[in-house]
User: Fold these one by one.
Assistant:
Number 1:
Amino acid sequence: MGRYTGPVCRLCRRAGQKLYLKGEKCYTPKCPVERRPYPPGQHGTQRRRRLSDRGLQLQEKQKARYIYGLMEQQFQRFFAEAKRQKGVTGENLVKLLESRLDNVVYRLGFADSRRQARQIVRHGHIAVNGRKVDIPSALVRPGDVVGWTARGQKTALFEMAKEQAGSRTLPSWLELDAAAMTGRVTGEPKPEEIGVPFNTASIVEYYSR
C-alpha cells in the first residue's frame, strides 16, 4: 500500500482526536475535528461502535503511523529496531521516531507540520553537520547540527521559518540558534516530555501477537 495522499484532517476525524497533522490550522476554530467531531464518510454521524481489544491496539498503532507519516513496512522496521534495543520497547520506539530528521526539522520550527518538514528534507533544503541530507527517515544523534543548505536559504520557506524562529517551545534535547537558523541535538528524546497522543503499550501488544 502506498503512502496516504488524501486530506490529512480525515485521519484525525477517523482517530477521533487531534493528531496535529495540519500545522497551525489545528490550533484554530477551522480545525475539522472541532467543526465535525465524528468520523468521515456517509455514515460518520452514526454512533461509533465499540472496538475489540485488538481494534483498540490497531487504532493506537495507526495514530502513531499517521503522526509520523510512515507506511506500514517503515513502521514495522522501526518497531523491530526498538524491540532489538535494550530497555522498554515502547520508549525505544518513541525515541527512534522522534530522532527522524523530518521530525527534528518540525520540532525546531523549520516547518509547520511533519508533512511539510518531510518535503523540505526531500527537496534538499536541510543539512546535517554541514552536509545535505535528503532522506527524511535519517536518524540524528546527540551532537548533530541541523541547518539549511545554501539552496534552502533562498526559499520562501526559509524566510517564513526565520520570521517564526523561537516561537515554538523546544524539547530539552534540542537547542536552536535563531540567528544562524541551526539546531543542535543535545541528547536523546525523552518520551515523557514528548506527550505523544497514542499508547505505546498498545502498539507493543499489537505486534506481540
Number 2:
Amino acid sequence: MTAPAFLPVLHLIPETEKLVELGVRLALTAFGAFLLMQFGRLLVGRLRVWMVRAGHGRPGAEQRARTLAQMFGSAVTAVVWAGAVVHSLAVLGWDVKPLLAGAGIVGVALGFGAQTLVRDVIAGYFILIESQFGVGDWVDVDGQPSQVEEVTLRVTRLRSFNGFVHHVPNGEFKTVTNRSRDWHRLTVDVPVGA
C-alpha cells in the first residue's frame, strides 16, 4: 500500500507548538521594531528642536532642522525595519549570513553606481550643517546672481534675476558667494566740484 501524495507536504509544516513559538517570536520582533521606531522618532524630534534653538532665529534654521530631521528619520526607519526583516528570517530558520554578505556586495555595487548621488547628498548635508546659504539668500554661482528658493540634501533650487529657475545638484557647487550674509562694502566714486 502506498502513502497518499499529500503526506510529504505535511512534513514541511512544523508542529503546532513550533508554529505558536514562531508566531510569538515574530510578533516580539515586530513589537520591538515598533518600539525602536517610536524611540528613534522621539530622538529625531528632540534633535530637530535642539537644531532650531541652536539656530537662534536665523533665517533658514527651521528649514535646515526640518530637512536634517527628515533625513535622520528616514535612516532610522530603514535601519530598524531592515534589522527586523533579517531577524525575522533568522527566526524562521534561514541562514542570514549569506544574505548579509550578499547585501554587502550589493551595497558596494550600488555605492559605485550612485557616486554622484552620494556626493550630492554629502555636499547637501555640509551645506545645511555649515549654514553656507539658506532660503531667501542672494548668492553668486558661477558668476550668476540668484536667490535661493529651496535647499534639500540632493539639490538646491535657485531663481535668477530674469525669473529662470535653476536646479543645481549640491555636489556641483564649487564656489558660492553669499551676498546676504553679514556686512558688505560698496565703493562709489562721487564727483565733487572744485
